[in-house]
Write a structure and sequence with these properties.
heterodimer; A: 338 residues; mainly alpha; two-stranded antiparallel sheet; 2 strands; B: 291 residues; 77% helix; ABC_transp_permease (chain A); branched-chain amino acid transmembrane transporter activity (chain A)
Chain lengths: 338, 291
């Protein structure tokens, strides 16, 4: 695989032009404010539930976008860190009676810590092999969740009734916490991938040796991204545990790792907003296509194959290149008339 | 001792299947540098085809095997011309190819769930009847059949790669595609041959293992991971080393699930894969990164 071939596809990830950067910034600010206000606007409990689903998947997808989309480290085991977050928080609160906020902080710190420790063996391997290694890791965690019954409750999982552990007041306002976390995660990823650092990420993704030659601290950046990705996934797990009020191994298994990957591909691999859009697609499409039920995976599998073949930048990349080609035709038109 | 030998026999049989998956995986990997994450689902397709032809349509085993090969060939062509070649033509990066193989596997699983049903189905063995006993060790006939057929297949593949012009050309494509093309090798066609070979071997493996573990849409992943582990443990290189590593993994799995804990036996196989990858010599890792 030559580097030129890689560039043709990652072209979609070019930094935004100067003129539109401010517009993007304000769009992000307005989007964040609207998102924070959404739980107050949405009337039905059912829709509120979907909103939280989308937000939690978005945080998980942002963690993978950061690792996979921006720095090219493919992970098929992102659910492992999701599990660390969800189970740590649930176990601390139920078995040890730790107050929720402390349990959350410990769970996220543990997610980051385990990602940091695992980055030492994992970052020795690249490409397909990294995919295999993270796959093995995810499966190890999944099996342990099922088998370590005294700790994890096995297939029954751990119940985490919100009214007891969060208190009724917080429980009623939990949707705000979820979207708040999403906004925080979004801005964290945004600020990490802006300007020089963001370009350094793309550089080390497309050509690690070249990036290292230009003074990019490749290993340190990869470790950093891996750690933050682990923390974000753990945060998503923490929220999921309270959202569904139960943690079971199925929610943190291989299927989840794959679903996050699909979200990232559908939305657009190196796009922050793509993670949110992809999450919305994966939550809403099955709701709209109730009649498909079991065919859901077939639809998503075919959708992802179609996107990989015809729209490698995902939905966001498709929109971007459409805008760019519009702009190009307009400017070339002006040149002709001038 | 008898228990040990009986476990060893089933371990070798199961391990031979892992070896076949590793073999199928390595054939595509060497020809194109692609790691095919759909290998397990292709095995599942073989097992499910065997189930439908044998149990639902009541065909005899020769026809069943023929059917499995035909289905495998069709899947290989779809995979090669519908997904792999268009993506290579568009210059898709490695990560996209990896995701594409995963998505292909997902589609196969979902199609099997929709078309046949999401349960584990029993499949009759090739030679029905009581297990045979040799020196007090009773063996399922299917275990012997699996081991024999798997090793004959490996022998055939070895023969193909070393003694036939097509096989040698295919190795040339794996070593240096440009040089092979310059020497008059039809690279694209040979890659299709590699896909066909890989999928057929894997699907036949699925048909062989179905009488022992059953056939179901979700059977692929667990076997594929052990096949990947075998390929990596065998150094991602020769066909027979992957086979030997597969047998080793099958033996470890069987013995550890009996003597240590059946609950944690899968963890051992996954840990082997993880450690084999991480401790892999840099030479092997590098060749993977550039391929």
């Amino acid at each position: 695989m030559s580097t030129t071939a890689i560039r043709t596809q990652t072209e979609i990830a070019r930094p935004v032009r100067h003129g539109s950067r401010r517009a993007v910034f304000w769009a992000e600010v307005i989007g964040s404010v609207v998102l924070l206000a959404l739980p107050a606007i949405i009337p039905s409990a059912y829709q509120l539930r979907l909103l939280q689903d989308v937000a939690i998947w978005s945080i998980l997808a942002l963690s993978l976008t950061l690792i996979f989309g921006y720095t090219g480290q493919i992970s098929l085991g992102q659910a492992a860190f999701y599990a660390v977050g969800g189970y740590t928080s649930a176990i601390l609160q139920t078995a040890l009676g730790v107050p929720a906020p402390i349990a959350w902080v410990v769970a996220i710190a543990l997610g980051m810590g385990s990602a940091l420790i695992l980055s030492f063996p994992l970052l020795r391997i690249h490409g397909h092999f990294l995919a295999l290694g993270t796959l093995a890791l995810g499966l190890i965690v999944e099996t342990l969740l099922v088998q370590l019954v005294p700790v994890t409750g096995g297939h029954d999982g751990i119940l985490l009734p919100g009214a007891i552990h969060l208190g009724p007041w917080v429980q009623a306002r939990f949707p705000y916490i979820v979207v708040g976390f999403l906004v925080l995660a979004y801005w964290l990823v945004r600020n990490l991938t802006q300007r020089g650092m963001g370009r350094a990420f793309f550089a080390l993704r497309d050509d690690p040796d070249g990036a290292a030659a230009l003074g990019v601290p490749v290993t340190r950046y990869k470790t950093l991204v891996f750690m933050i990705g682990g923390g974000l996934a753990a945060a998503a797990g923490v929220l999921y545990a309270h959202h569904t009020q139960v943690v079971t191994p199925e929610a943190f298994g291989f299927g989840t790792s794959i679903e996050v990957l699909l979200i990232v591909i559908i939305g657009g691999m190196s796009s922050r907003i793509g993670a949110v859009i992809g999450a919305a697609v994966i939550v809403f499409v099955p709701e709209w296509l109730q009649f498909l039920q079991e065919g859901e995976n077939l639809v998503f599998g075919l959708l992802v194959l179609g996107i990989l073949l015809f729209l490698p930048g995902g939905l966001v990349g498709g929109v971007r290149s459409a805008i760019r080609s519009l702009r190009r035709t307009r400017t070339s038109g002006e040149e002709v008339s001038a | 001792m008898t228990t040990f030998l009986q476990l060893a026999v089933s371990g070798i049989a199961l391990g031979s299947i892992y070896g076949l998956v590793a073999l199928g995986f390595l054939v595509i990997y060497h020809a194109t540098g692609l790691v095919n994450f759909a290998q397990g689902q292709l095995l599942m397709a073989g097992a499910m085809t065997a189930y439908v032809l044998l149990m639902q349509l009541d065909l005899g085993y020769p026809l069943v095997l023929l059917g499995v090969v035909v289905v495998a060939l069709l899947l290989a062509l779809v995979f090669r011309y519908g997904i792999h070649r268009p993506m290579v033509r568009r210059g898709a990066p490695t990560e996209n190819m990896v995701v594409a193989t995963i998505a292909f596997g997902l589609v196969l699983t979902a199609a099997a769930e929709l078309g046949i049903g999401n349960t584990r189905y029993g499949v009759d063995p090739i030679f029905p009847g009581a297990p045979i006993a040799i020196g007090g060790v009773s063996m399922q006939t299917q275990s012997i059949v699996i081991t024999a057929v798997a090793w004959v297949l490996v022998g055939l593949v070895w023969f193909f790669f070393t003694k036939t012009l097509t096989g040698v050309s295919l190795r040339a494509v794996g070593l240096n595609r440009t040089a092979a093309a310059v020497s008059g090798v039809r690279v694209s066609r040979l890659i299709t041959v590699a896909f066909a070979l890989s999928v057929i071997v894997t699907a036949v493996g699925g048909a062989l293992v179905a009488p022992i573990i059953g056939a179901g849409p979700s059977m692929g992943l667990a076997i594929a991971v052990k096949g990947f582990a075998a390929a990596v443990l065998g150094g991602m290189s020769s066909v027979y080393r992957g086979m030997v590593a597969g047998v080793a993994i099958g033996l470890i799995e069987m013995l550890s699930s009996y003597y240590i804990s059946s609950a944690y036996a899968p963890v051992i196989a996954y840990t082997i894969l993880f450690l084999a990858l991480v401790l892999m010599p840099a030479r092997v890792r590098k060749s993977g990164a550039t391929a």
